Amino acid sequence: MGTSTSSSGPGSGVPFDPPWLDQLGGGDAENAQAPADDGEEAGHSNNPPTPNIEPAVGIAPARRFANARRELGAFARSGSREALGKAIGHYSRTGMGGARNTAARLRTSTRSAAGLISLLQTARDGSDPRINQWVSSLIARNPSAQDVINEVIQQVTTSGGSLEEESCKDSMAQAMSELMEIQPDIDLLNMTDGNIWTLVEFFLSHEACSRLQLDIGQLFESSKLAPREVVARINDMRDYLKAELSAQMRSLRQANGNPSSRQLESMMQQALQNTFSVYEGAL
Predict the structure, then answer these.
(1) 2 pLDDT higher than 60
(2) What are phi and psi of 225, to 5 degrees?
(3) Which of 25, 84, 119, 175 has the most C-beta neighbours closer than 10 Å?
(4) pTM, whole model, 2 decimals?
């Protein structure tokens, strides 16, 4: 993925949240399912209504990522999980102004993830005529696995050219490919809820890892590691984030095993916030 080298990271004296972030919308299948007369969803839609997520607040301090860069550099050199955990904690607490801000900054990712869950559940259950037509048209073309991946991504992401949108596309493609490596015979349009949630965990861990790389800057590229070592370190960072994120997702799903479309994004925002809070608490 190319987003990790495209920026040296945001500086100080700027809002934690860019003002244009909320202008990024939903995917092509927006309004795929109208709400029922009583105001509740008629079922899962592939583009759930966006909850009122408060933007990240505050102004970034000077040298906001200095501690995170130091610890991430130590991780790059040694592979130390302790250094990596501290890097993530400093990134969230000082670099982003706290775990709530960090989760809010990733709301393009959680919006896409909520849309992904709803689309895949709706496609499997056949509960929406528009999605049924999309599935039938896609299957009629005898698509390859990559064709299905591309079509799903098109349905739940936008194409405005922002780093956030391109990162979501990249992470979603990697997450689906990763799931197919584990389960080669899986049907992406007929998955169990367990597989769908595993896919979302893959996706959000890719997104969190990418966000750190974008914000902290070209640290791995300047670490003088061999390319193979750089890939290994980035994969380790993603796996480390995924382990905690998966635990938080499982806990929230146990508390609400059948979230509505309106609750999906809020649930994933909470999972991200809880994840970064754990790393902050380890400092």
Answers:
(1) no
(2) -80, 155
(3) 119
(4) 0.85
